[in-house]
Task: inverse folding
């Protein structure tokens, strides 16, 4: 499902700029997909394709910030590099708050743009990797029975088996069995690893 | 009493009567010498008749001899009278014959009284008595004829010859009646007189009847003279009649001259005598008997005008034309009156001025009216110039002197064209003739700027009102002229300030739009940079695709041009310059404005719906100022919609023709808040604003600009929501299409055939734009 090569999406209503950015990125060795409007981009957007989005702020109808909002809502991981004709501080703050990868002012130097694109792609790659790991963990977590999950919760809190058994109204031996099964299912060897894993899951809000 | 006595007596009586009548006539008319001559002739003829009758009744020889001797005296008188009559009255007869007859007859008379008993007889022997033609007994002499009697016969012959000669002369002169009557009777009488020698010589036996021979002549003379008298009487009657007519016409003239206040005068230049009608003598203080000379008449002239009158008289003496002049005189009662003198000189055969006749007329009232008129003109606050039909200046006031820098003397009697700049001079004369042809009070050169020419050749802007003035001397035109230099200067200053203000307003507005403008510039710059760097990379990569490189370079070129265009438009918009007057299409202005504000509209998410009418007529105006107005309205509309839902932020720009007028109308409709009724006019006032950071000058400047374009700017509220600002501009007259020098603006043809502006949203079938802003390409 994940393409091997990252794609740089360019969305700009002004054709000459769109073309020139596409050419630059292409010459720098990137795979480029250009769109004349936010709507056009949304129509063809495939969340599976990774890379980054070079987005013009000022566009008729649906502008860059609005597209960012839509993508954010859709849970897109695609980093966005905003390009703007005028350095509009409130807009750049708004964009950065919503997780923009960068906010560049036109005319933009090639190195600056390419660096931003590389950073964004790397960010996307890392994010996607983490996302993939997280998904795997969650898949493993999903295999746990409710009882095993309860035991896990208590283990992460740092309780001893005896305490857990007391809390759950069972015997220490049963807790031990559940604990071993959790460690096995989650392919973990130490409690420390278990704690880190659950922490990651919590941070990512799952 | 026998018939002889009666006839001879009657003859004598008739002659005496005639003599008496003509004597009376002569007494009344002493110069009528012919009448006296005739009177003498007739008396002589009567005397002859009396002598003859006495001789016929003579009782003794001695008696007879005495009578015969004395009869020669009347005969002598008669003969001389005849000759004189012929010479003087008929103006005929040879003088030597006349003198011969007179001398001979006188000689006969002298001889007659020298010899005894008389020239006819040497001796009368006896008297023979006999009855003639049944009359009483008459006496006839019997004796020896005197040889001296031949002298008498010769004289008789000469008289006959003289009469014949005179008659022929008169006949030849063409006066045949006179020749026949007077000449004929004289010749007949002269022939008849030949019975005397025949009787004396005893050849015939009749009594002497010389009186009849002569009384015939006398009758003819009487007839002739009576004819003259009758003719004279007739002439007298005619004279009387013509005198009556003359008197009547004189009375009429008197009446007319009196009514017209005319004084008729005649100057006999040779004798230096002036005749004035009696009535008028008193007026001037001349006595009735006083002999008037030119100098005396001139003495009543007002002292200051003496030289003028002298000049006037000198002028009149050199021409046969009527010469007219006006001057003042002092009347006997001390009153000073203005009079006009008209006179015409008559020249005699030698070409010398003989007479001058003319009239004087009292024109004091007219002069007073003129003076009043002159004072009114003088007091007028504006310059006044009066011009006659020949275009010559007849009156100016002090203001006119001040405006044009000429003195009064330099203006009066000169052509008005001296005050017209040379570039208008030829037109002016034509226009002036046109005006005199149809004169009515009106301003001159309506709608045109008028200039006057000063003495120093500089031009002065003026306004002229024309007033026709009809006078007895023809049509005059009084032009009231106002120097509008100061007003023009003030207008120029106001225009300059207005220009400054509009420029300031433009700069301010561009400041507000700086973000949008920076964006407009950044777009092409960005494209250029990216393209160039892409090209560098392509080259660095080594995998050179010529097609790609060509495309890159093409894009760089076109984007550079776009950036240059943005800068050019900006520079133009910011330029502070004179107000331009171009023929332009309003649609082009709308398109230019939308290009300037494109980014801002996108940023503010305002959709623009352009409804531009096709084939609009062009207007005359300053493109930049009109852009400014429209930009202002568009920015205001955007601001008005800022607080509203983005879906509602829709702007409609319409162009079209104003209903029933020759004006183009542009309207900008927003969907923001409405303007309250009391503020709908207030918004155009300076320093009125609803914006936190606005100066409140935008709309007032807009109104000034539109007013300067002779248009109107106003606002209305829409029925649903928002307001609409409209401005109308009069269309250019078809013949006034100035060539467009500014290439930034499309020509009429180009712009007006454009029709609706293309923009990416397109116009939906219901006429409402898809809400996605505009992108002008």
Result:
């Amino acid at each position: 499902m994940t393409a091997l090569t990252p794609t740089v999406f360019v969305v700009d209503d002004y054709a000459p700029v769109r073309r020139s950015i596409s050419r630059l990125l292409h010459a720098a060795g990137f795979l480029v997909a250009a769109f004349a409007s936010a709507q056009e981009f949304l129509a063809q957007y495939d969340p599976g394709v990774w890379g980054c989005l070079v987005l013009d702020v000022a566009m008729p109808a649906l502008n860059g910030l609005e597209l960012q909002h839509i993508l954010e809502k859709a849970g897109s991981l695609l980093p966005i590099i905003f390009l703007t004709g005028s350095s509009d501080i409130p807009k750049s703050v708004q964009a950065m708050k919503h997780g923009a990868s960068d906010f560049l002012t036109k005319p933009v130097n090639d190195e600056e743009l390419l660096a931003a694109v590389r950073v964004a792609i790397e960010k996307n790659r890392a994010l996607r990797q983490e996302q993939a790991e997280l998904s795997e963990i969650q898949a493993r977590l999903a295999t746990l029975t409710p009882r095993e999950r309860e035991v896990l919760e208590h283990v992460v809190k740092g309780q001893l088996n005896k305490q857990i058994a007391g809390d759950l109204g069972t015997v220490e031996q049963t807790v031990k069995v559940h604990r071993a099964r959790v460690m096995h299912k989650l392919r973990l060897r130490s409690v420390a690893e278990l704690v880190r894993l659950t922490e990651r899951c919590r941070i990512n809000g799952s | 009493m026998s018939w002889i006595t009666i006839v001879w007596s009657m003859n004598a009586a008739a002659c005496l009567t005639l003599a008496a009548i003509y004597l009376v006539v002569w007494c009344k008319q002493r110069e009528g010498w012919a009448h006296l001559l005739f009177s003498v002739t007739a008396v002589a003829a009567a005397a002859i008749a009396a002598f003859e009758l006495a001789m016929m009744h003579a009782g003794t020889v001695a008696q007879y001899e005495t009578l015969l001797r004395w009869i020669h005296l009347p005969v002598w008188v008669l003969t001389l009278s005849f000759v004189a009559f012929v010479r003087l009255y008929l103006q005929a007869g040879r003088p030597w014959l006349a003198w011969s007859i007179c001398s001979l007859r006188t000689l006969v008379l002298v001889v007659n009284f020298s010899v005894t008993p008389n020239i006819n007889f040497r001796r009368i022997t006896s008297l023979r008595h006999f009855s003639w033609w049944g009359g009483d007994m008459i006496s006839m002499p019997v004796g020896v004829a005197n040889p001296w009697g031949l002298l008498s016969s010769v004289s008789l012959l000469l008289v006959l010859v003289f009469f014949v000669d005179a008659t022929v002369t008169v006949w030849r002169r063409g006066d045949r009646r006179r020749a026949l009557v007077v000449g004929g009777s004289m010749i007949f009488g002269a022939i008849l007189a030949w019975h005397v020698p025949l009787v004396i010589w005893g050849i015939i036996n009749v009594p002497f009847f010389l009186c009849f021979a002569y009384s015939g002549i006398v009758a003819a003379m009487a007839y002739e003279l009576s004819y003259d008298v009758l003719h004279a009487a007739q002439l007298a009657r005619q004279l009387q009649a013509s005198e009556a007519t003359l008197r009547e016409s004189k009375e009429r003239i008197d009446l007319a001259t009196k009514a017209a206040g005319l004084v008729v005068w005649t100057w006999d230049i040779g004798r230096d005598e002036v005749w004035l009608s009696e009535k008028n003598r008193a007026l001037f203080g001349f006595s009735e008997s006083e002999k008037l000379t030119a100098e005396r008449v001139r003495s009543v002239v007002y002292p200051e005008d003496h030289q003028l009158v002298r000049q006037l008289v000198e002028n009149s003496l050199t021409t046969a034309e009527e010469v007219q002049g006006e001057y003042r005189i002092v009347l006997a009662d001390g009153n000073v009156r203005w009079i006009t003198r008209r006179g015409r000189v008559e020249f005699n055969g030698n070409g010398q001025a003989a007479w001058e006749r003319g009239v004087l007329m009292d024109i004091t009232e007219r002069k007073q009216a003129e003076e009043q008129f002159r004072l009114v003109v003088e007091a007028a606050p504006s310059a006044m110039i009066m011009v006659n039909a020949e275009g010559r200046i007849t009156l100016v006031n002090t203001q006119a002197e001040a405006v044009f820098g000429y003195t009064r003397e330099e203006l009066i009697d000169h052509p008005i064209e001296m005050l017209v700049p040379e570039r208008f001079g030829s037109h002016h004369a034509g226009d002036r003739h046109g005006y005199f042809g149809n004169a009515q009070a009106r301003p001159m050169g309506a709608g045109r700027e008028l200039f006057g020419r000063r003495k120093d050749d500089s031009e002065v802007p003026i306004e002229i009102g024309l007033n026709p003035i009809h006078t007895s001397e023809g049509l005059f035109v009084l032009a009231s002229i106002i120097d509008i230099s100061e007003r023009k200067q003030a207008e120029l200053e106001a225009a300059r300030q207005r220009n400054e203000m509009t420029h300031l307003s433009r700069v301010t507005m561009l400041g507000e739009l700086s973000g949008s403008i920076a964006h407009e510039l950044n777009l092409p710059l960005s494209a250029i940079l990216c393209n160039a760097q892409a090209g560098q990379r392509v080259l660095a990569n080594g995998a050179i695709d010529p097609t790609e490189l060509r495309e890159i370079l093409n894009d760089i070129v076109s984007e550079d041009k776009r950036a240059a265009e943005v800068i050019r438009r900006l520079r133009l918009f910011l330029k502070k310059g004179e107000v331009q007057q171009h023929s332009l299409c309003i649609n082009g202005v709308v398109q230019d404005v939308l290009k300037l504000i494109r980014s801002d509209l996108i940023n503010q998410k305002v959709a623009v719906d352009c409804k531009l009418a096709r084939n609009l007529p062009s207007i005359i105006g300053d493109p930049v100022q009109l852009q400014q107005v429209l930009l202002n309205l568009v920015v205001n509309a955007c601001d008005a919609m800022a607080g509203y839902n983005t879906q509602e932020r829709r702007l409609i720009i319409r162009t079209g023709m104003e209903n029933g007028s020759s004006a183009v109308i542009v309207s900008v409709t927003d969907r923001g808040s409405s303007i309250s009724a009391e503020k709908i006019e207030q918004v155009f006032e300076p320093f009125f604003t609803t914006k936190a950071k606005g100066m409140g000058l935008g709309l007032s400047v807009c109104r000034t600009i539109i007013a300067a374009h002779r248009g109107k700017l106003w606002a209305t509220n829409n029925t649903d929501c928002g307001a609409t600002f409209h401005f109308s501009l009069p269309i250019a007259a078809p013949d006034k299409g100035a060539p467009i020098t500014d290439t930034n603006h499309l020509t009429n043809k180009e712009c007006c055939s454009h029709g609706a502006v293309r923009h990416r949203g397109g116009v939906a079938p219901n006429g409402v734009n898809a809400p996605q802003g505009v992108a002008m390409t």
